[in-house]
Predict the structure.
Amino acid sequence: MYKTWLFNNKKKKERKDMIKYGRKWTPRMVIYQQNREKVLKRIEDESGEKPGGPGMFKHYQAAVKRVMTELDDDKLAKAKETAEEWSNSFPPPEIQAEVAHKKGPAYMEHFSNEMWRQCGMRVFVLSAWKNEKGEVLFGM
């Protein structure tokens, strides 16, 4: 009896989206984006792991931390300002192109699935974006 009452009166969980649109940038993320080659080279030199390989992630945090300690206070303050600016408006085109390439298809699929689930509506998506070189790419 108590078990049934507790089951029927429990707090209902709200369904959360699997995809979080947008990003809150931190100074650490900005420094990584601006010094990406340096960080990846440091990981490869110190650990022997290739960038993008499964073993690389063990050494990622330490490499970013070492790059951050090498920066002076001026650059750290600038990274903090940049993180605020990117969070409030948008990041530079190179980073936008990278996000469009990596996450664009998942965003579109999620949107079309939600429109079908919520409204019974089919969605056709034609996408266009600029790559790192500024060339316009498109897809369906």
Q: What stands out?
A: The chain has a mean pLDDT of 84.
